[in-house]
Structures
1.
Amino acid sequence: MQIQTTPLILSFGVADPVGATGIQADLATFAAFGCHGLSALTGMLIGDTARVEDWDEIDADSVVDQARVLLEDMTVAAFKVGALTSIEQATAIAEVISDYPEVPLILDPYLSSMPDSGLLDDDMLAAIRQILAPQATLMLLSQVELARMAETWRDGGSGDMLALDVAELTGMGCAYVLVTGTGTVGKGDGATIANTLFDADGVAETFHFPHLPGTFIGAGSTLSAAIAALLAQGLTPLEAVRAAQQFTHGALAHAQRFGMGKLVPNKLFRAAPFTP
């Protein structure tokens, strides 16, 4: 019998029938980095590559039961928390994760393809900020998502609001915040986009990548899952973010069109093609 040495990652998230986002996408990304994914479902999506039509929520007690049974049996090297469908889930998951403070947590709670990814509910945003973000090694969100969350605690303001909004999260205990879409330079084929990593001292690093044409589904999920896998493999947060963005850019550059909707990142673009 072989003793297991593959890093295990427990992902909380929704089941996506397309496999572009959520749990299925996480498992594929984890595997691409030599990790094995465990899962606790928070909901089940109904949709295709064009849109998510609806979703079914899973009871918070069931989410906890899924996770506790796994954690009593196995030792995990990282947690990832993806899309949530209720405040009760956020509270329950935060309680589970609090028992493992030494395990890295990647928090990526927004799923832009969902009809309501939580951005419409102030209470959900407050719950994520107050009970999950303080436990996170890294939180991933777009500049739009950050600004929307910030509406729950600030009243107006001036100056560099991006830095001030991130400081609210790092001040509560979130070690790193990776904000995507913080800038675009140029137009056409030569355009680049920027993502910015923040820590408690401010900007840790800004990353620039060539802009890729097309509309994608699951880019953020791929990025956060890659960061979780690299942390599970022992990289530092800064090393993990750098490598994960390179991987995500490659997955998007090799994206595939499965249906009539958006392009799906190819998480296995590095794998050799099968030849019968």
2.
Amino acid sequence: MLGTLVLVCASVLCANLPFISERVFALFPSRRKSLLLRLAEVLGGYLLVGSLAFALERQAHGAAYSQSWEFYVVTAALFVVFAFPGFVYRYLWRKH
């Protein structure tokens, strides 16, 4: 149960961080990030959270179960839904 909560919180954080922070991957300073770079950061966050999920599953069950392509499509869509508040804040709500 705690692992699931950690995974959901990490997903929401990693999905919204590219839209909130002006730093590249929250580490390197940048003057202005393009939308393409922000989407690349979202993809990197998805891979990072996927690695965390893989590690948590392996720790809890001893092995990670194999998944088909449908699983990855659904989790990617859920990650994009998690990123929506950050996108709205950055491009639709905030005055430039």
3.
Amino acid sequence: MLEERETAARVRVEGLREEAARLAEVLEVAEIELDRRVIAREELIEALAASAAETTAVTEAGAEQVTAPSPVPVPGSTVPPWRDGLPVTVLAPDYQRILEVVQERAPAGQGPLKAREIAVQLGLQTTPAKVEGVRSKARRLAERGWLVQDTSGMFSAGQRPVAVSDAGPSA
């Protein structure tokens, strides 16, 4: 009877050792993923800080009326609040294209556009994901004063200064 218990204990210990080895491998993979995510977050913070510094430089340059070349925006860069004299070229290409589509419609007196209509004008598929991407970008342009969004969710041309919050940069 003691031998049976000893054998059962050995089997249990061996099973637990195998489980511990498997969990050690899983833990190592999870630690590697965590390290990658920490590094990505730190890189993002640095990139956003650099972008904010560029935006501040653009603001100061505009205030001094010095005509320095604008930094070339990259996809995913922040949308600065609109103010008089700020060129459209500070916006990322996707935002510039949305702005162009909406502004082209204004002189013709055709009224505001839905996000789906903007997507069609941009040559995008009208899948929900694409339309939501356009809606998100158009809404961000409206929040920053580059476009006007009416209560029905349609977008039209128009610019207005907006109050800048200290909530941190967002794309």
